[in-house]
């Protein structure tokens, strides 16, 4: 139990809050900031002046307001100058992007990845290569304030060390350390679980804006979960919380990559769907999943049955999570987006049967607003976290 | 996103923090408070003076310190003067207590309750009757600062309205409103789910002190859950979160009072154990559960098998929760205490098989330090929440 903050801590906090407003909300008038932050005009002016001097925002006259009187200046994020690097390491692909303050994707590279092979130096090398190309396109006064990585597996929160990833086929690798070395930029690299970052992204800029109780389910080959409860990301003691894909829903069921049986991931993952549809081994990945959903849509009974079966287990898993978390929204991302769209009726029916009425009465089931960029955007938001928490300190740390 | 607090908000916050220190930690020297709160001596002295003037604490010379020099004054909670009322409404019993600041149980009444019958006016009337008797024993300057109720069911957080309680056989009753009316004390009554309050109690004063990620499982007839994640109680959108007893662990399994099948509560509740042991219908309640555990301990094979079966489902449920929450500690309270003590090997084995290594590596499985008072103590802590958040404001509200 700590005592309250000092005046200087409050000022730093307020600088971060103001910057977060324009980062998430876009250009905002001083008058609007005054209202939203509950501070007086002179304080807002002083905070804005500090952020402007630091090169994080700029003030401009607004376009025609249509109102009489002197218009309130608009505060804009310096999106093309201040940026982060965002990386997404998935089962089938690698993505690297340069994302400006305000969330603008300024530059982007993507490459397919072979499944089941994860050689740390190769992955890190490719991401560093993408970065070199992206940095060539930056202006002389641009500032990189951090880097974030979305990783499909369990990551130790303290040091970005990969503990497990059955679906990437890797465990026990110092991802953050190696990537920091390979980038050689002197900026902090933060690594997070992709589903956790997806949850943060959809809450910040997606379908879950303003939701304090949100679950994001991410299907890649397996199923990851990111849970926000009471406005906070569920991390757990070591940072491995949210592994809802390894909740056993079918005791004694299909074997799972984790060594257990009947995990949600084993019953609703890509392989479960493709096997149930009699299509395993021919094609894999998102296209194969989409093909099953399309076939079901065209009346293919085997595909319909497969989708219904998987949708039923998915619904049971969601019902359990609804009873446990009483969320406002559950978002189906990655490959689960296709499955949910194809089996929404089964999912909803199962939730209605197995979730307590009080826990589900205000529930919304949705797909991501950010589409396939959800986890990448989450990586960018993770990278921005420092500069939004304490803007001037974060700039000082990267030598800007 | 709000701006930082004002000076006056900080002072009020600090008064609450100081009071919380002595409430939870007992008599504490000013020097110790200075260190723990990170404030200077004069600030601590001013805060203590305010709390003393309000009659919430008093300062005393310490007993012999054995050190040279002037000893630091010790700040004590006014335990016999400032108190709350705590009520526990369980399936089989009603408990009412008067609990002094600092957590001292000053007075206590308990009565057995008939199962399956819940008549709101009767329950409220009995609790009000206990209260009248307890108030007769209070001194003229004593102050009641609140009342808290632990209830075995789902309670709407906004107004203490009972939404569901299959095991008490009641739903849709305005518990808080009726109890406030029956008590007629003009103090706020807060109602919470018993397992949620058990979690808070064990974190505040029990086996989970200093744990930020804790799960408390409470067995009554059914199974409730209280989850603290990142230091915060999981409430969910409407306050119904933590219903882990209605997580389906055995799809198509035993029917549950909620209408679903194979819920954790249906597979590990009192009835599941007694039926598996061939003892359902003869005796019920904690004694009957204890008798099965005792029989197993004496070598009764049917009882051993029953306990192993129930322990296995309990272990699967815990493994799921460990994957979802990555907790530091899981606490088995109420009737689950007996079951866990009788089937710890099965529970541990199942957790080892079905929970991810990273999620379980620092896990402790424990029974409550507060024993059968866990939920009652939680109700008291709920009642103290207001005075600990803003001591002077809370006193003003109760007219003290």
List keywords for this structure.
alpha/beta; 15 strands; kinase activity (chains A, B); Nucleotidyltransferase, domain 5; 14 helices; globular; homodimer; 400 residues; five-stranded mixed β-sheet; Sugar kinase (chains A, B); Arc Repressor Mutant, subunit A; 44% helix
Main pleated-sheet profile of chain A: 5 strands, mixed
Biggest interface goes to: A-B, 68 and 69 residues
If you average the pLDDT of chain A, what whole number results?
A: 94
Stretches of chain A where pLDDT is under 50 for at least 5 consecutive residues are none
Which strands sit side by side, in order, in the main sheet of chain A?
Answer: 6-5-4-7-10
Counting copies of identical and different chains, the oligomeric state is homodimer
In helices, the fraction of residues of chain A equals 40-55%
Q: At the fourth CATH level, what is the homologous superfamily of the largest domain in chain A?
A: ATPase, nucleotide binding domain
Shape of chain A: globular
Count of the domains of chain A: 3
Radius of gyration of chain A, CA atoms, in whole angstroms: 22 Å
CATH architecture annotation name of the largest domain in chain A: 2-Layer Sandwich
* Strand composition percent of chain A: 15-25%
Number of distinct helices of chain A:
14
- Helix-strand pattern of chain A: HEHHEEEEEHEEEHEHEEEHHHHEHHEHH
The CATH class of the largest domain in chain A is identified as: Alpha Beta
